[in-house]
Specification:
- A 7-stranded mixed beta sheet has the order 5-4-1-6-8-7-9, sandwiched between helices. It has a two-stranded antiparallel ribbon with strand order 2-3.
- The protein starts with a strand and ends with a helix.
- By secondary structure, it is of the alpha/beta class.
- The protein is 30% helix and 24% strand.
- The longest helix is centred in the middle third of the chain and has 14 residues, at 79-92.
- It is built from 7 helices and 9 strands.
- It has helices at residues 30-40, 59-62, 79-92, 110-122, 148-151, 180-183, 189-197, and strands at residues 3-8, 24-25, 28-29, 45-50, 67-71, 97-102, 128-133, 136-144, 172-176.
- The chain is globular, with a radius of gyration of 16 Å.
């Protein structure tokens, strides 16, 4: 099965007041950390969805053969537009599924990515495989190509979770994780300060 990653990095950073993905962290940037993790995974390609030139990507990751930067002109209309840009790109490559990741979650571990991919490979009929924390679905979420037509009908800032409810939940697999740090995202200056000080 051919799996690709959709690395969503076109957010507005409105609560931070500047591009949070460019903030320094771990000898690189906030946005570059999880990208490096994704590039180590068994995903065949990582599509980085941006609205402007991603100066936050390290030169090492930028030239990685798996790395492909996709400019999404409609990204300002919400997360669903970034997702649709990713899907349109991956459809031409004939992938069986995409793993949706958020660029402002630097602590997503490699083993989580691999566990999600492995579940899809051993049960191909699953429409999605999602991580969860305290019973709430959260990225990374792997979406089967069979969901792409419905995802292309989304609008606004709702993302794929709009389709992962009700009867649809019976068509996928939810993997619970109990470490808050894995899903810690960087939205505000306080989040970033906590990140630097090691507060979990």
């Amino acid at each position: 099965m051919k799996m690709a990653g959709a690395y969503l990095a076109a957010g507005k950073s409105s609560r931070m007041g500047k591009n949070k993905l460019e903030l320094p962290f771990r000898n690189t940037t906030v946005g570059d950390v999880a990208l490096g993790t994704a590039l180590q995974s068994s995903l065949e390609k990582i599509y980085i969805i941006v609205k402007e030139e991603p100066h936050w990507i390290s030169s090492e990751n930028r030239i990685h053969p798996k790395c492909s930067v996709i400019h999404c002109p409609s990204a300002h209309m919400g997360q669903s537009e970034s997702l649709k840009c990713a899907i349109r790109t991956t459809q031409t490559d004939g992938v069986d599924g995409i793993l949706v990741m958020l660029a402002d979650q630097p602590f997503i571990p490699l083993h989580m990515i691999e566990e999600i991919i492995e579940w899809k490979k051993k049960t191909p009929s699953l429409q999605f495989v999602a991580a969860s924390f305290k019973n709430i679905i959260t990225p990374p979420v792997l979406l089967s190509a069979t969901t792409f037509p419905d995802l292309l009908n989304l609008s606004g800032d709702i993302g794929a979770k709009a389709l992962l409810r009700g009867d649809q939940l019976n068509k996928g697999k939810i993997l619970p994780y109990h470490q808050f740090k894995y899903f810690q995202d960087i939205d505000t200056k306080e989040d970033y300060d906590n990140l630097l000080s090691g507060i979990k």
